[in-house]
Amino acid sequence: MKWSRYNKLFESKRNGWLLYNSASSNFLMVEDDKVESVKQMEKDLGSFDFSQNPMLYMQLRSMGFIVEDSQDDDFYNITKMNALTRLYSNSSLSLTIAITRACNFDCSYCFEGNRTGKPMSEEVEKKLIDFISHYKCDQMSIIWYGGEPLLAFDRILSIDSAIKKMGKKYSASMITNGYLFNDEKISKLNELNITYLQITLDGKKETHDGRRYLKGGGPTYDRILENIGKILKTDFKGKIHVRVNVDSRNEDEFPIVYNMIRQMFPNDFPRRISVYPGFVKGDDHPDVSCFFEPDEQGAFISKMMEKYGINPLAIYPRKYSEGCVMNKKNGFVVGPDGELYKCWDDIGDESMVVGHIDSFNNWNMPLLAECMVGCSYLDDPECRACYYLPVCNGGCHRIRQKNLHSEVKHSSCTYFKGNLEDLLELHFEEKKRKSRGQKAGNAPAKTNG
């Protein structure tokens, strides 16, 4: 028997000493007089004498804090097997389709340096439909992307019609600035199987209009809010996710936007509309002082929960069931000229093209392999040894891939690890709240004896 490598013992601010196991998601409240004993177990389990307290042993064993010698390795292998089975499954096809690179906005922090370009042509559309028909999959998902996808709305309608004529069923989402919606476009959302709309508001009106303005200048805030209201007044069956791009200049405006949306649409929040933070990547945009590393992101999430009572993202870790397009076998980002990428951050970067929709030959196999397996967290020794692995999906795979070619390394870890103890305490308190009214055995346990 041994102490699980997925254990974490820490002293929380409000609940004293807690022992957490990421494989079982169990918590144990450790009484002050038991802390040194737990630390001794962590250091050398074999030297600890349980004969005077067999109940403590049984408690730690049943909750997954003490495991068989091979159990952690077995767990890792099963986790890896399940992840690879999902990532390499032929049952689904995931496409992010950048229908155009053109945009009606001129946002200061946009990562797409060239915002010009024609929308996808009819010729490319035909090749895209042929490409899709090659995949004999049961499920398909599409993200309509850009540029601004509403600039090429007719092409979206045409592709949707062609896919349905093939007899394929699919779900869709759209990443849009929300400015170009009108009654006609809104009326087509259900027909397009769109279940998710991401629309961005970057803080209060003054802040937003100073960052997300029209090409040639001009405010956008009021029009976007008006369009959100129009969508929610219809029978749209999907959900609107309002993204607030957060950096050090507007972090305190996030709760303002959050509460504004909640107050404006009380009957739809959070069922049909929600608000969440998006962390702008500062390494690509040195003019913006922003959150990038996990500790800063985690601190922001913790602050929102503790100061404002807002849970903007999941405040506790969970087991993931899906991977990133970058390491999915049947996952691609399609550019408006039919070029294929493995990450939407790479659109327009010719060096990151892995193939093309008009041929399955002459692909950039070294780059494709690097994206899918070369930067995989599943083969990273540091990740394998990390206590956080069971509730981590490897963080950002694009960052991991960039780190392979850069002397300056950025953390690809999830924001949980950056402020883990505070977030785990919030998770613990959430579990306690949920356990009220349930059987006592479902509540976080205390050390016995």
CATH class of the domain at 92-308: Alpha Beta
- Structural class label: alpha/beta
- 3D shape: globular
Q: CATH topology of the domain at 92-308, which one? A: TIM Barrel
The major sheet is characterized as: 9 strands, mixed
Give the terminus-to-terminus CA distance: 21 Å
- CATH homologous superfamily heading of the domain at 92-308: Aldolase class I
DSSP strand tally: 15
What's the gyration radius in Å? 24 Å
What descriptors fit this protein?
alpha/beta, 449 residues, TIM Barrel, 9-stranded mixed β-sheet, 4-stranded mixed β-sheet, 15 helices
Could you please describe the fold and organization of this structure?
The structure is a single chain. By secondary structure, the protein is an alpha/beta fold. Among the domains are: 2-69 and 419-446, no CATH class; 92-308, TIM Barrel (Alpha-Beta Barrel), CATH 3.20.20.70. Helix content is 34%, strand content 16%. It has 15 helices and 15 strands. The strands form three sheets. It has a nine-stranded mixed β-sheet with strand order 11-10-9-8-7-6-12-13-14, covered by helices on one side. A four-stranded mixed β-sheet has the order 2-3-4-15, sandwiched between helices. It has a two-stranded antiparallel sheet with strand order 1-5. The radius of gyration is 24 Å and the shape is globular.
Structure in a nutshell:
The protein is α/β, with parallel strands linked by helices. It has 15 helices and 15 strands.
